[in-house]
Amino acid sequence: MGSTSAENNGSAGVGRRDLIKRSAALGLISVPAMSFLSACASGGGGDDNGSDSHQGKTSKSNPFGVEKNGKLDVVIFKGGYGDDYAKAWEANFQKKLGITSTHTGTQEITGKLQPRFNAGNPPDIVDDSGAQQIKVDVLYKNGQLLDLAPVLDAPSVDDPGKKVRDMIIPGTLDAGMQEGKIVALNYIYTVWGLWYSGKLFKEKGWEEPKTWADFIKVCQAAKKDGIGGLAHQGKYPYYINVAIMDMIAKKGGLDAMKAIDNLDPKAFVGSDAAQAGVEAIYEVVEKGLLMPGTNGLTHTESQTRWNQYKAAFITCGSWLENEQLKQTPSDFDMKFMPMPLLPDSKLPFEAIRAGSGEPFIIPAKAKNLPGAKEFMRRMLSKEWSTLFAKEANSLTILKDGVDPSVKLRPGTQSTVEASKAAGDNTFRYLYPEWYSEMDTAIQAASNELMSKRIQPKEWLKRCQAAVDKQAKDPASKKNHRD
User: What is the predicted pLDDT for the residue at 54?
Assistant: First the structure.
C-alpha cells in the first residue's frame, strides 16, 4: 500500500542532509538483492493491448515511439507525499514532449478507478497506493496490468548504454513482482520501524532501547508520567503488523520471513520466532502500555496524538514525516529506530525492513501506452528523481538518483543513518503484494489481538489458517523466494 499515507504498505522514502554525500549514501543504503525466483508466469499479466493509435516512430531517444502533442491521463495517490511531485513531472513532460496531462490527485483510488477498470477505460498511469488501493495481485489476475519489462529493458535516460533496470537499487523491483513478471514499479525507497521524539526522550532522560526489555521499560516509564507507551494506527492494523512481522524476522532471521512468504505449513503455528514475536507485542497490550484509545484511531489521528507527546513510540514507514508535517511541532526532533531485539535474535539490532513502496502501474488497456511507458522511463531518470525528492522529501529506487544540492527534511535523515547502519541487514516481506487476501486476514487477526479479544495462540492459529488457505491456490506455486 505503499505509501504513503493512509495505509500504505508501504511506501515511503528515505533520506536527507548531505544526502549522498547524499548521493553516495544511497550506494550505502542499497538493499541486498534477495533472490525471488518464480516459475514462468502464464496468463493474467496483461499485454500491450491498449491503444496503439499514439504509436509514432521509435528511436534511441524515443524508444516507445511517443507522438508529440499527445495526452496522458495520470492518477496519483495524494497521501504522505502529496502530488506536487507528479505535477512537476507532468510539466516537464509537456515542456519536452508537448504531451499534456489530465491530472487527478486523490486518496479514493478504488472508488475512482474501479469503475474505470471495469469499463475498460482506465487511466494511462496510476500511483496505486494508500488504504483504498486496488490490490495489485487482483489487477494482475484480472489481466489488467501491463508487464513493465519493456520499460525496464529500455535505454536509461541518463546513460543510453545501460538499461533502465541497471540504474535501480538491487532488490527494489521485487515488491512489484507477480508470478515472475514486474507489473508494478514500487518507486520510493522506504524503511519501516519505530519512531519517537528526540525532544521528549531528552527531556525524560530516556535512551533509544536496543532490547525488547529496555523498550518495555521506556513504555513503563512513560506510563508513570501519564504518557502512552506505544501508539499504533488502530483502524489500519497494517501498521502494527510492521512491528509484529519485524519482530518475527529479527528473531528467526530471513528463514522465518521466507517461511511466511513461501506459505510454509509451519509459517506461524510451529514457528518459535512467530510465537516470540507476537507474544512480545502482546506484552504491550497485556501490561496496559498502549496509548489510550489508539485501537480506535485512524493513522493520522494516532500519529497526531503522538506528535502531541501522548505516546513515546509509534510504528510506521518513512512517509511519516511528510504525512505529519502540519501536525509536528518545530522542535519535535522526529527520530527513526529499528525494532528492538528479543533474546537470541538471529538478526542484529540494526537490521531493518527496507525496500520499495508506492506502486506505480500502467493499465494494460491504457489509451496512450507509448506515452505511459515513456513517462515511467523518465521517472527513473536523475532529473525526475530529483524533482521527486525536492517535492516529496524522499529518495527513490534510482541509484544515486538525487542531486546532492537537494535538502531533505531533518526527521527523514535518521532513516538514512539507520539504512547505512543496517548495511546488508535489510529484509522485506512480499506476501502483502503476492497475497492480499492473506494479508487482510493477518491484519484482522492483529486487530483482534491488539483489542485483547484474542491472545497470541489464537493469533498464530488464524494467521496459519490464512497461509494454509492461500497455499491451496494453484497460482501460489508461481511465487517463490529462495
Answer: 59
Query: Cβ–Cβ contacts within 10 Å for residue 224, how many?
Result: 7
User: Nearest 5°: phi and psi at 72?
Assistant: -135, 135
Summarize the confidence of residues 240-259 as an average pLDDT.
Answer: 98
Q: Where are the alpha helices (DSSP H) in 226-288?
A: 238-252, 254-261, 272-286
Q: At what angle do helices 436-450 and 272-286 cross, to 10 degrees?
A: 40
d(CA 235, CA 296): 6
Q: In angstroms, rounded to a whole number, what is the distance separating the alpha carbons of residues 367 and 363?
A: 9
464 within 8 A of 269, measured Cβ to Cβ:
yes
The CA distance from 86 to 132, in Å, is 19
Q: Is the CB of residue 22 less than 8 Å from the CB of residue 404?
A: yes
Please give the Cα distance from 11 to 319 (Å, whole number): 7
**pLDDT attached to residue 23:** 32
Q: Are strands 311-317 and 334-337 parallel, antiparallel or unpaired?
A: unpaired
* Residue of 321, 363, 315 lying closest to 338 (CA atoms): 315
Query: 10 Å Cβ neighbour count for 105?
Result: 16
| CA–CA gap between residue 381 and residue 367 (Å, rounded) | 24
CB-CB contact of 145 with 46 (8 Å): yes
The DSSP secondary-structure symbol of 248 reads H
Residues 6+ apart with CB under 8 A from 111: 132
* pLDDT 10s digits, 117-176: 999 999 999 999 998 999 999 999 999 999 999 999 999 999 999 999 999 988 899 999
Please, which pLDDT band fits residue 48 given cuts at 50, 70 and 90? very low
How many other CB atoms are there within 10 angstroms of residue 389's CB atom?
A: 26
DSSP state of 63: T
Residue owning grid cell 523498550: 215
CB 25 within 8 A of CB 416: yes
- Considering only the C-alpha atoms of the chain, give the largest distance between any 2 of them, rounded to a whole number of Å: 70
User: Helix, strand, coil shares of the chain as percentages rounded to 5?
Assistant: 40, 15, 45
Average pLDDT over residues 22-28: 34
Cβ proximity of 427 and 433 under 8 Å: no
